[in-house]
Structure formats: C-alpha cells, structure tokens
Amino acid sequence: MELEDLRLIVFNERESGKLSDIQQDIFSQGRKLLDGLYREARSIDNFLTDRGRNVLNESLSVEETLQEIVHLRSKKILKLAVNQTENSYVDRDEIKRMLPAERAMFEEISAAIDRCRLELLAVESAWEPAAETEDDAVPETPAEHGPVVQLHAPENGSGYAVVRILEDIDSFMGIDGRIYNLKKEDLITLPEKNAAVLVERNIALNIRISK
C-alpha cells in the first residue's frame, strides 16, 4: 500500500456518484503505511534534511488522504440512508461495497431517521373521531383478527396500502394529514410511505388484497 494507491481511491470516489469497490482492509493497510513512516521519522536526527522533510510531508499526506476517503464515502452513505427512508429503496450493489463499519453506520442512520420521522409526525391531542353514520359503520369481525379500523383510501385507491398492525403505536399524523391511533391487530389503510416505514420496522404486516 502506497500513498498513490490511496490517492487513486479518492479520485475514484470524487468521479463517481456511487461508492467505489475498495479493499476491506484499506484502512488497516493505511495505518501500517503510517506506522512505517512514523518509525522512519523517529530514526531521523535532523528534519531539516530533504529526507526528513519528505517523511513528514508524506505522513501528513497519508493522514489527509485517509480522512478524505472517509469524508467522501460518508456523504454517499448518508445520501443512501435518506433515499432508503424516503423511497424505501436502496441500491443493493452499493450496500455490498460498504465496509463493515460503513454498513453499521448506514443501518444506524437509517434507523435514526425512521425514529425521528415517526416522533415528529406523532401528534398528541384530544382528537375525537367524527360521529359515525350508518354508511361508515365498521362491520364486526372475529375477535382473533382484531378490530377493523375505518379505511381512508382515496377514491382512485392509489398511494395507500392495507396493513395489519402488530403492536400498539403512539398516535401520529400520516403524510396525508390524518391522525392515526393504532392498536395491535388493527387492519387499516395507510399512506404507502407511512406503511413502508412500519412494515420495515416489523410494526405492521403488508396485506395484499386480490381484486
């Protein structure tokens, strides 16, 4: 591993909008390179010589290049995490290119965004449902399947998904502006993005309805 190898990685990361495929041990190899330069520096009596200046400059360049690799790849991983939470999609090939520590960071950021979004959309209020009319009455269902919650799908049926709730959830506001108070075993239609977050976190089960 040489400084030029690290600089090539930086070049590839800057040129591509996606994560580059790098060695799993790239940073341990970088640290070994630095350790060798540090040992050489300790053996130099006079840093004013050409050799002394070259060792100092190279060690500084290696440190800066390793930092730049982390910086460039972290920005891409953050973008991937945001894309996954907003669109429920991420390029699996890019996940495969992540180093173990980067994969852990990606998963933690994605989970944190989901938690923050659910918390910010949760609305604690004395919300009361509208008076039920004869047309709005919810049919009775067997107790083992839990209650059926009134479904709020738009007329064209697009943009919503039917899910079964697997655990009690604090009240929250969906992206459609409605307040949802959900309990375990409720069957309800939610905006697709809200439903995707709950399904991904194993809080809800997606129900496929055949026409």
Describe the protein in words.
This protein is mostly helical and 211 residues long. It folds into 2 domains: 3-121, Methane Monooxygenase Hydroxylase, Chain G, domain 1 (Up-down Bundle), CATH 1.20.58; 143-206, Ribosomal Protein L9, domain 1 (3-Layer(aba) Sandwich). Helix content is 50%, strand content 9%. It has helices spanning 3-15, 26-42, 50-87, 92-97, 100-121, 192-200, and strands at 160-165, 172-173, 179-180, 187-191, 204-206. The strands form 2 sheets. A 3-stranded antiparallel β-sheet has the order 4-1-5. It has a two-stranded antiparallel ribbon with strand order 2-3. The longest helix has 38 residues, at 50-87. The chain is elongated and about 75 Å long. The chain starts with a helix and ends in a 5-residue tail after the last strand. Mean pLDDT is 79; it is low at 123-158.
Low-confidence regions: 123-158
Cα-to-Cα separation, first versus last residue: 60 Å
Question: What general form does the structure show?
Answer: elongated
- The Rg value, from CA coordinates, equals 27 Å
What is the element string, with H for helices and E for strands? HHHHHEEEEHE
* Main sheet summary: 3 strands, antiparallel
Widest sheet, order of strands: 4-1-5
**What's the CATH C level of the largest domain?**
Mainly Alpha
Our count of domains comes out at 2
Total of helices: 6
Give the strand content: 5-15%
CATH architecture title of the largest domain: Up-down Bundle
Mean pLDDT: 79
